[in-house]
Write a structure and sequence with these properties.
This protein is α+β, with helices and mostly antiparallel strands and about 140 residues long. It is built from 7 helices and 4 strands, in the order βααβααβααβα. The N and C termini lie far apart (about 30 Å). Bound molecules: adenosine-3',5'-cyclic-monophosphate.
Length: about 140
Amino acid sequence: MSEIEKTLSIIKPDAVERGLENEIKKIFEKKGFSIIKEKKIQIDKSEAEKFYKIHETKPFYNDLCSYLSSGPILAMVLEKENAVSENRKLMGATDPKDADDGTIRNKYGISIDKNSVHGSDSIENAKTEIDFFFSD
Ligand code: CMP
């Protein structure tokens, strides 16, 4: 059964730096996502560590947190039926070289680190991640 869900999307520093925000937002809207909240911010490394806590045991954790805090990002709440899985489909594989044609990471991703977008991987994490950026 389809349900209206919310998910968190982040346009990462590599994409913001290249001025891709509007292009990527248009892709979401064209696929039927409503962007119901958005916030352009730069977070510091300790906030990035909190955001990516789920990855704290991974060997790439330190670089990942340095990277996310290296420049401005655009955090958005996307809404659509099955938003969590639909967004993950639209983003494509984590590593842009494995991402299918037509996906955001295939089109814009540079590397597994600079993969242009983040999207929540479950409904539960979507709630936590949305609260992280939009609790006020
Ligand atoms: P994201 O969807 O934001 O979630 C965690 C991020 O870690 C992921 O995108 C990648 O940019 C980054 N990352 C770096 N190395 C790896 C790796 N080996 N496996 C998975 N994610 C990685």
